[in-house]
Amino acid sequence: DTGVSQNPRHKITKRGQNVTFRCDPISEHNRLYWYRQTLGQGPEFLTYFQNEAQLEKSRLLSDRFSAERPKGSFSTLEIQRTEQGDSAMYLCASSLSIYGYTFGSGTRLTVV
Amino acid sequence: DQQVKQNSPSLSVQEGRISILNCDYTNSMFDYFLWYKKYPAEGPTFLISISSIKDKNEDGRFTVFLNKSAKHLSLHIVPSQPGDSAVYFCAAMIVGQGAQKLVFGQGTRLTINP
After folding, report:
1. What is the Cα Rg of chain B in Å?
2. Chain B nearest-CA residue for A5
């Protein structure tokens, strides 16, 4: 287990299409986070799972966004009816404690 | 509402000299602070952290200083090496509150010149 894995690394989609990203955390980590990073900005929190329970969602997460973590293992982030403003790097992180985030390499989404 | 700010988008330093990256925050509830380093096409990598009960934490070439009264923290890298060239993010959290999510600054691009 070499770290947090995210797939795909890059996704180009047409406006209006749905996309889904996957995150495989470090296996023993019970906490999982999704962040979004746009150009020139730092990562911004989207949502948090503890095991399979989604415990917190940011106001940034509109109704078009949904995240799941079935069985407390991998997680998926789906964006429906994509808009150009959704173009960003989507980062997943996992941790065992509040002090030890490990980030994945991210999925770069481009909406054309 | 930018609660964590890094006012210098970029910094250029000569190899072997000291690099000082600065970060300011507005939320006095933040009690744990971290620095992350990010290379292109990779996720942020943890560098060093500090609790609000301390004013300094050191790890090899990296030292973080915290000035709570000024709501300011800084990262010192000495001596700077070419491999230190990256984007550096400071981040803050409130321990024990909800998700303990990180609030990031905008980042500072550090370039180490040979």
Report:
1. 14
2. B43
